[in-house]
């Protein structure tokens, strides 16, 4: 690996760690602040928070490389000419002339292996889940009246399967065990998941929060999942016009449903879901109406634009820090 590539990789990992640490600090504050919000608005804010580590790190990384990229396109913008030869250049036009220290190389190697291991583990799980989804879809029969796929299984199952193009799948056992009203509520709930693309959002949130600290990562992902389930419960309540009926259906169907296999979980969302007690309690109360996503979205957009606008300063500060770390200052 070239010295420039090693330095760029270290900078990328450093920005990922810093953005993950920043979001780690924001997780408990955001969860508390949005606890009483309308579920779909709370879900959007939590989704924004979940993708923030990757987005902020990406913006900072682009900002660091932007002066060098501009210098390639327009040589008159080459800022490196104002530095002496001993300055560390994080630049494609003027690559660094000195090798990185062994300590920095060790950190880069260890961090890269950790990221690759986490990514490979997740990809293996997703690949196995998608293969199982494919097999289940092939064994299912289309039910045109309900607009779902029916599995010839006696175990009661009702779930959304797939990431990019999900399908609602129920088992013959579920159709037999539920009343017409319960089936209607369950399908309204799953159609809401389908429309909102909740499984895809969940996958992106898991991937983007890899650098968030473990406990806070678990908290934000659980809060995101609960907000998605409550949003779909509210959609089912609006469709049926009976919040109590939806709450009763959740309780009955949760006891009825078979657990989906763990190897299928990354690409599936079951009607039973998680935190049933919180979902039922929310349905027994009047619908929540608070919360506004506009301010959070605008603030996040301004932050991203500010990072890009400050690319020259971020680039220079990063070079200075890297020079200190590599003993080239």
Based on the model shown, name its key terms.
329 residues; mainly alpha; 5-stranded mixed beta sheet; 11 helices; 5 strands
Give an account of the 3D structure.
The protein is mostly helical and 329 residues long. The chain has one domain (3-325). It has helices spanning 3-34, 39-73, 102-139, 172-177, 180-196, 198-208, 214-240, 243-256, 276-284, 294-309, 311-325; strands spanning 141-143, 148-151, 158-161, 167-171, 268-270. Strands 1-2-4-3-5 form a 5-stranded mixed sheet, sandwiched between helices. A hairpin with a 5-residue loop joins strand 3 and strand 4 (167-171). The longest helix is centred in the middle third of the chain and has 38 residues, at 102-139.
Write the layout of secondary structure elements.
Layout: H1 3-34, H2 39-73, H3 102-139, E1 141-143, E2 148-151, E3 158-161, E4 167-171, H4 172-177, H5 180-196, H6 198-208, H7 214-240, H8 243-256, E5 268-270, H9 276-284, H10 294-309, H11 311-325
Parallel strand pairs: 2-4
Antiparallel strand pairs: 1-2, 3-4, 3-5
